[in-house]
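Revision sheet: structure tokens.
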Amino acid sequence: MKNPTVVFPKPKSVVIEDLEIPKVEGAHVLIRTKRSLVSVGTELTILSGEFPPQSYWAGYGKYPFTPGYDNIGEVIDAGPNADKSLIGKTVASYSPHAMYVSVPQNEVMVVPPGISEDEASFFTIAEIVMNGVRRSQITFGESVVIYGAGILGQLTARICETAGAMPIIVVDVSDDRLAYLPESIIKVNPLRQDVVSEVKKLTKDRMVDIVFEVTGNQNLILDEFKCLRRLGRFVVLSSPRGPTYIDLHDYCNAPSFTIIGAHLMSHPPVETLNNPWSRRRHTELFFDMLLSKKLDVSKIITHRIAYTDAPKVYEQLLEDRSKALGVIFIWE
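Predicted:
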């Protein structure tokens, strides 16, 4: 095959198509993919086709859909206006699950020596989480509940801990996912425990300063507010798959909650003195934290799979994602 590429031709259907190797023109570079990370929440939402027809999801997830935005590979060619010194370097890019991708030079980030390709592939997930935690305006000693222990929730717990939050409480119905959290994180399974009672006890009746919604399940959101203290912050770090109908008096005005959207695209387009935390800056910070051992994502890699098995993997994930965190396709 010239350029095997994962494609969703229609809902609940995954194929590997043999596309042409993209031409390298202008200031683009050609990348030979080594690893790509599955964004389980986003990709399964599109693959399922289960979202409102007039929603943002419907505009984004048009079929045939080419999934993926966490790509690590080696630059093997450069266009006439690109920096030839990039050839041979390992880079991160927001490219899909494909053997070869062509990317504008200014959109790639060099992966420093000492970071494995597997670890580097989490870079976009790190951008999402770092941006969300930063937008929460968390301060040292504040308490946090994180709903969802998937890949985003796992990283949110670790970044909040780095920021000095305590206690950090993660809520999920999967004991398998909760088991991947560090020992210092408090785990609550609502199938066996009453979440509000546990939070009340752990915060000495104060309730938490910040709730992070990371499940993507729009039907859970209203109940998640019950853990929040008055004047607390509710951060929508997930991309819910449907509408939530909310009484703004009862859930915002009366308790004076602050509801914060934290989509990846709320990053500033460029680094400025007033707001230096662009996507590129967050990726740089993520790489620095890996190198300094302040963050370890290797322990949340649950699947390392040949790209040729992608259709089977997506089928399994649609059936049960409860044991899946970092799912990495290997392209070598």
